[in-house]
Structure formats: structure tokens, C-alpha cells
Amino acid sequence: MLHQSLSPEQVQRISPASWAYLGDAVYELYIRSFYLMPPKRSHLYHQLVVSQVRAESQARHLRSLEPHLTEPELEILNRGRNAAFGRPKRLDPKTYQQATSLEALFGYLYLTNPQRLEELFNYLELDSKEGE
């Protein structure tokens, strides 16, 4: 994935809410790419992607990734969790905080360590057979 080259100092000046904003898009792009094969009808792509990008699924993915995270990555999660505000009415605050913290981590890693981001994506438990 292409992105603007930023120095570590510049990345640190970006707010965790902004990391989450970017991470949301990076995560959705990964999920969309994952479900491209085998080819499906567009409405099925949409159903599969929406099921994975929901906050509840992101919170579940976060829990599955936690054993694989480093101390600095756990600190990024904490910063992302603290940036979560204005949650949707249908969600409990903890789920929303977990989803936001995962998005913040993905946004941060996208900017600082794309190889590590790919490694974490490979730990996600996604059903590749869904919708076939």
C-alpha cells in the first residue's frame, strides 16, 4: 500500500483519533481484498465486508491479536482507546473503544511499519469460505 512518507516525529504528532480514521480505511481495504476471491456478486461482497468491519467484529479481532502484540503496540492501543468518543447508540462503550483502538493501531502501523501490519492481518481469523 502506498502512503506519504512521514518521519517518526511527524507520526507521533498525529492524534490517535487520526490514526484510527486512517486505520479504519486500511482495515476495510484489507477485508475487501481478502474476500475478492473467489469472485462473488457485489451484494455478497458487501455483506461479507460489513460483517467484518462492524465494531463488534473489530473488538473480537482485537482480542485475538492481543497475545501477538508488543509493548509499544499495546501502548498504541491504549492511546487509541482513550481517543474513542461519540459512540453509536447501538454499541456499548467498551466495544467501541476496542474497535477504535484496533483502528488506531492499524493506522499507526500503516504509517510506521507496513510489514508488521501485514503480519498482524495474517493473524486475523477470517472465514475464506463464507459466501461461496
UniProtKB/TrEMBL annotation:
What EC class does the entry list? hydrolase
GO biological process terms, semicolon-separated: rRNA processing
**Which Enzyme Commission numbers does its entry carry?**
3.1.26.-
Q: Which cofactor does it need?
A: Mg(2+)
- Spell out the GO cellular component terms annotated for this protein, sorted alphabetically and separated by semicolons: cytoplasm
Domain of life of the native organism: Bacteria
- The record places the active site at 24
What SUPFAM superfamilies would the database entry show? Answer: RNase III domain-like (SSF69065)
Q: What does this protein do?
A: Involved in correct processing of both the 5' and 3' ends of 23S rRNA precursor. Processes 30S rRNA precursor transcript even in absence of ribonuclease 3 (Rnc); Rnc processes 30S rRNA into smaller rRNA precursors.
Q: How does it assemble?
A: Homodimer.
> What is the protein name given in its UniProt record?
Mini-ribonuclease 3
This chain's source organism reads Planktothrix tepida PCC 9214
Gene that this polypeptide is encoded by: mrnC
